[in-house]
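Q: What would this complex look like in 3D?
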Amino acid sequence: MHLLESFKHCPLPKDLNGIRFRDSTVPFWERLSLLIQTLSHIVHSENRFYPIQRNLQVQGWVKHFLAVNQKNRNELAECLLSELTGYLETREPLEQNIFVWRLTGNRRIGSTYPQLAGELKLDEGYIRYVFLGTLHGLIKASMEEPARYSILRGVVKDLHKESERQLTQSTKVTLDYVLKGMELEEIAGFRRLKLNTIEDHIVEIVLTDSSFPIDSYVSAEAQQRIAEAVKSCSTRQLTPIKRALEDDEISFFQIRLVLAKSGGII
Amino acid sequence: MNLEETLYRHFGFSTFRPGQKEVITSLLEGNHTLGMLPTGTGKSLCYQLPAYLLKKHVIIVSPLLSLMEDQAEQLKVRGEKSVLALNSFLTPRQKQSALSQLNRYRFIFLSPEMLMLDQVITEVKKLDIGLFVIDEAHCISQWGYDFRPDYLHLGSVRERLNNPLTVALTATATEAVRTDIKSKLNLREANEVVSSVDRSNIAYIVENFSNYETKLTRLLELAKEIKGSAIIYFSSKKTTENVTQYLQENGVKSIDFYHGGMEQEQRKLIQQQFITGQLRIICATSAFGMGVNKEEVRAVVHFHLPVSMESYVQEVGRAGRDGKQSMAVLLYCEGDEGLPLRLLDQQIPEDNQIEGVCTMMSEQNENRQSPEVLRQHYSLSEGQWNFIQHYVKEHQEQVEMSVMIEQLKQYSKTRRQYNINRFAGLFNWLKTNQCRRTAILQYFEEDLLKPNLICCDRCGVNVKELTENLKESILNPVHPFEWKQELTAMLVKDPELYEK
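A: Here is my prediction, written as structure tokens for the whole assembly.
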């Protein structure tokens, strides 16, 4: 009852989508906030300021973004303004306010979460959620309507590609070891996991990145034969494929790898 | 072109501050130089200006990552593009690419750990080094107030780089420490430029209280009376937050806190809000201040006792960089000495911790524990852990484990006593009946050259009058706004002409 009551007062933001945007949210905000700060100073003819984002990659990105963008700076700032205003107008007043308070421009440094909590008399954690919801909403909108949000789309573009191939934490660890040149058995021994689990990780990696080389796990010749067997069985079920291959040397793991690599097209 | 013209052209100042010109001249004449310039008087200019005249690479070794970042950033903001900060914040790829084109950078900041890597030394060696700068040089002396074992290697690094022209800079160092710095760096014949630690525009005040409540009430009063910017220092993160909240609830406006436990972005926001005058007062731990260039801080208040005279002078030095009258107020309550003594103690390992960790570190592979497990098992603070780690690394090949354990215990004991003695220096100053300015100078083995009109509580400064007469700082508080107007004003030069 208590929980339901509090949801009524503090509803969860509707665009909150941590699973989908987990990896792209923070860099998106870092880029966007620094881009806004930079444009704000440029349009007001102030060319010295302390960047609010310290990450050199983010700073490099903003420089590059401005360098390749043909629009004149005032125009660019106006377009960004109209994209942001257009989006925010569809939102609740609380979201509009939190978002703009968080921004840093030429005249004002953005507010911290505790400062907003004090200002708005709300819980700090709740403010963080609402703000996160706004960011997720912006990312989503720019992906669904790239024509309308062309600048925001430019901010998100390469970020979200990365986050589409998300790996589970454990798989990331396995990938690290693989890249260091360790054998799967070694990794399994080292991490005290079953070999099966490590193989699952490799399949997951290939599923998210079809360019990942599998030749060290399946010979090119075996890959060829597996692909043919898949075609002739016209199924993606492992057992019939394995039967059709008539070869004990070829494992289920190898079949799964070939299937994963093909992404369904053979 | 004379030095003043260069100063004006690159930095926009028309005169040097005490000590700057002497250090620069000594360097330009080709002498290795040790410069001691008090906090707040522009140490970094001593290597930045020569860089433009020598027209060669300048290598700057800096002990703190955040300080390094701040200095690199300040150079960039001033319009200097060829600045590189080579530290562990860079990804391996960024590091590789930076190393392969070191030649492109005029100012190269390095952490001492970086300079221990052969690959880095090899690349640095290829450069035509105009000046080798050791910032916060007191860190090289174990008798300095912030000893960094990594700094000890800088002497041999200098040699490997063929003894480039070197400047060692520090804000506070007694004569013994200065001699130690020179010997560790093999710079025995270096020129010394020593400016007085005295900051004549800062008035020193100590106020005594019999209990915590009256001290807190006084702080509230001060926070309201001082009209300009102020920093209030605390020794604990928790108290920093709690007292800030107390002050806010009691009507102090434009005040917030800062400590090392906050997220990086939030820290940056608070720091910038203070610099731009959006915040008037910062409550902070000692994590705040290094590299924060704010000219018009009118007061530095200590709610807790610092651990030494050196750190006190360092922190107080953040007041009045603009040269205008400012003040340092220390609020002391009987028993306050417990906290700094405890903090100092937590830096040095206990005998049983030394025995336990060393024994377990010498175990063979299968029984070996990870550092985290060891630290937790013996509940070691980060300082204690580093203390042991470093000692073991330096000595394990020379002596047997059992001998080393005894030596390490002895060394810990010496360090502990040394810390206590240094704190005693501050504590004696606190209790002195003498002029506070004279007493500070005595600690640093200096004489007061000319008496100061607005000196200290012992010389009869009237705090009320002083606070009333301090100039106001330029403040820039934030007012409520309508989101759309605010966003428009942010991104459009002339919002009234903007219609959409």
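A: To summarize the key features: Chain B is about 45% helix and 15% strand. The longest strand of chain B covers residues 202-209.
Q: Very helpful, thank you.
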